Amino acid sequence: MAKNLVIVESPAKAKTIAGYLGSDFRVESSFGHIRDLPKKDLSVDIKAGFEPTYVVSEGKEKVVRNLKSASKGATIWLASDGDREGEAIAWHVCIALGIKPEAAKRIVFHEITKPAITAAIEAPRTIDMKLVEAQQARRILDRLVGYELSPVLWKKVRAGLSAGRVQSVAVRLIVEREREIRDFKPVAFYKVSAIFNGGSEFPAELTENLKDSADTEKFLKSVASSKFSVGTITQKPGTRSPGAPFTTSTLQQEAGRKLGYSVRQTMTLAQRLYEQGHITYMRTDSTNLSPLAIDAAKAYIVKNFGGSYSDSKHYKTKTKSAQEAHEAIRPTNLNKLSAGADAQQSKLYSLIWKRMLASQMAVAKVQKTEVTIDIAGSSKKFLAVGEILSFDGFLKVYGGGKDDKILPDLTQGQALKLVSMSGLESFHRSPARYSEPALVKKLEELGIGRPSTYAPTIGTIQDRGYVEKKDIEGEAYGLTELYLKDGKLGRQTVQTTLRSDRNKLVPTTLAEIVTDFLIKYFAGIVDYGFTASTEEDLDNIADGKLTWKTMLEDFYKNFHPLITKSNQASRAEATGARKLGKDPKTSLPVIVRFGRYGPVLQLGEASTDKDAKDIAEPRFAPLPEGSTLEDVTLDQALPMFKLPREVGSTAAGEIITADIGRYGPYVKADKLFVSIKGQDPLKISEEQARKLIVDKQKAIKEKVIADFGKLKILNGPYGPYVTDGKKNTRIPKGDKPQKITEARAKVILSEAPASKSRRYTKKK
Fold first, then answer.
1. How far is CA 423 from each of CA 89, 236, 281, 498, rounded to the nearest angstrom?
2. Average pLDDT score over residue span 103-121
3. Which of 164, 323, 578, 672 is deepest in the core (most CB within 10 A)?
């Protein structure tokens, strides 16, 4: 039995560390947190000073038994991550194993390399209880908010909803941005550009935008026969500087922008790279680099690019956080040009490698030239800008230089020939929707959450149905363009698409309902300033400037009365119910509200008299496509109660109905549903519906190559395959799908390797 037991939180990390330690050391994993607050109960004794009751986490009983067995007679080394969460994991391990925390050796390292681990072993410390208490305060605070606030939403809005201190604020940001976009009134203007010739052709733009088509036409006519000449020429050197090495936040933003990775994906890949020893710890808001790293970067740059490319720098961290590690994210070995177990990890490693190296390189130098172009008889001017990259500096490694914009050799007063000029209609842009990287940047700017919380927060608000990441289809526009060529004025329409978006975070109606309710009854909880100040309080606990119980007492005495007050809210108020008017035929009220499955129209009201008889139950209908709770009108609502509408019948005599469901409008015949997205279920004709149904039946028929009951051979998007409903496998080369017998299909399925599960499931 080994004399020393090293306990880490990750199996992958354990495997890497074990390779650096001798036979006297055994390395085991706790598989993350080993104890936590139980899921079913609050488990926080508020009257006893917010004392928590922890239990061994579900499914971790065997882990605890194995660690207890391995710890007998051994010196315990706790090597979980160096942030608050890691410190808390180490403390919980001690308690679960019955070891006094002060008796265990706590070691922390920023990178999983042999020198770092050796140095940590030589300088152990005890568990930092201030960090543990800061993590515990966060855990209890979030439990109090979740367990007291979420049930309010269940009663008032919909069962199963959740609210959280950071997640609710993130949703509020997205909701408010969407409303800004909705309320934005685009204003048109005209942007005038021209091509001049002064030895060679070059572009220029009018220094001011014009108000409308009439102004633009007037301007173009006025300059049709004007003379143009070079006004002032300004030449000045400029520079472009490299960015600091990555923090967690900037890595998430840049990986999203350059690689298209989600925040959650970036953190998962970075975790793998860290556990394999390729990069330093990936949860940090420090831009600092160790002297060894700076020296290594300088040596690499000088050797591979020359001394002129080297410029060693120390970057000052903008944010202060007691919980994070004290170095930026960087490669552990700069001479390792590529690393990672798959292509996605490799791309992220390359991004980190380039960013760190570029941060220690010289600025790029540019020569910028600005030329104003005078118009005879007019005070308006054109501006032409040229830029030449004279020294690429850090751009040799990271960022990619812009194409040089070279102007011809011009002199002041030189006459220029107008080649063409045009004024194109444009619109002022509305505020941009948040992408995942943009939301991370905003949360960081506001001081909300910490780097380690961004990925789970953004994942949670999508998983809970508050936010959808989607592409927004733009609207087709015909923009007016006025142009001047050879002294003649012309007009044409330029077709374009405006207001389209890709991979943007869009709030659902549920998000808007919940946000409005929380702002009205729990304004302090979803206040940006409060959420940021909470993070400062947690930092103060970690620094020993504030006790965790005092912080929780101050919070709870203001929070709990809000729960009581919110019980006064009616369900109608909480769900955004709005009376649109009365049905002319029945005089019953028409109401729009948020129902169990989303926005819904309601005709009539439920009776509160349990003994009443002969009172019709309310009728429900979906909202017209494209309308919302806020803008749907009575005239739009009334026809919806005619749904489901009988459209006609199929050639076989099956009744065809049209309706709107959770996924949009559809027609139905027998058990076959066909989407009619983009069409009106109140207007679709029998002929149109029949064709859609026949086309769907044909597509289904073509999908089935052979049907042996449970076993089938189907056509899929990637070719024919065999399936039994649970397991799918592609058809081997040499087998013709149409000639495969049932017996052969069984053999193909049995010989196929088991698919690798991408999710871990808990044993019940």
1. 64, 30, 53, 18
2. 90
3. 323
